[in-house]
Please model this.
Amino acid sequence: MSRDDAHRFLIAYDVADDRRRDRLAKCLLRHGDRVQYSVFVVDVSAARMLRLQHEIAGLIVAVEDSVIYCDLGVARSVDVARYRVVGRSRHVTGSGPIII
Model:
């Protein structure tokens, strides 16, 4: 995936069952950064986001759980400095180049 086509999403959930909640958290950890207990920041292309939403739909029970997806815009233009955290903060991967 080119980082040029990735959007940064804020994904938050409220899942009633511990087992489903753990599975959802593990799924989201594979795709992004946990910024709060049930809030993640994920950089993905449109196609990957559709696949992620489909995967998440298979992990939750829609009548009991909820997931919110907030598109924050093109990942390369979303500066981590725009986040304001009061209290303990967690690392959010920047939108610059990733060196492996």
